[in-house]
Design a protein that fits this description.
- The protein is 33% helix and 34% strand.
- It has 212 residues and is of the alpha+beta class.
- A 7-stranded antiparallel β-sheet has the order 2-1-5-6-7-4-3.
- The longest helix is centred in the middle third of the chain and has 15 residues.
- The radius of gyration is 20 Å and the shape is elongated.
- The protein starts with 11 loop residues before the first helix and ends in a 12-residue tail after the last helix.
Amino acid sequence: MYLPPHFRAGETQHALKLMRENPFASLISVDDEGLPFVSHVPLHLEERGDQLVLLGHVAKPNAHWRYLRERPQAVVTFLGPHAYLSPRVYPDLLRVPTWNYLAVHCTVQATLIEDPDAKDRLLKKLIADHEPTYAEQWRALGSEFAQKMLAGIVGFELLVAGLECKLKINQHRPESHVAMQSMYLSGNENERVLALWMERLGMTEPPQPGDV
């Protein structure tokens, strides 16, 4: 992606935080026509020593798993909070609007997971991410039902070979930061989270109790 130096995340931990807080990702491959093919899927992030791995699955009728088998290299994108920025945050009028956003792009190498037991372990990791209490219900559904459900999906493991993290929050316009944080703190959920990221990146003073 287009990544000017002032928007490049300096710490991998920023990317990991974004990926875990925004796990519903876009998985992008090339189809048999040579065009991008996109599936929108929740992914589980694992750190294995120095390696990052993403785990997920698609429905068996979804051709995406075949594209991953034939062309294992793919791209995964995560979009974090994003919001419009009005030029009213500047002290002068010769300004234009923009859109602030946080995003992570990963180049990955895919391996399919088709063994039922391995798919079951994958599902339990996703359950633990989003609804840990459902694990007991899943186990109680019985092996026949579970095997039927597992037969309807194809899992995959995505080894992250390259990672880019873009934090676009007007860092290069410090004259806007105080007004921008004030505007975002009183805005919608996305805007309030961006205000917290501004503080995390040292762009402004920490918000006072009750501001968020």
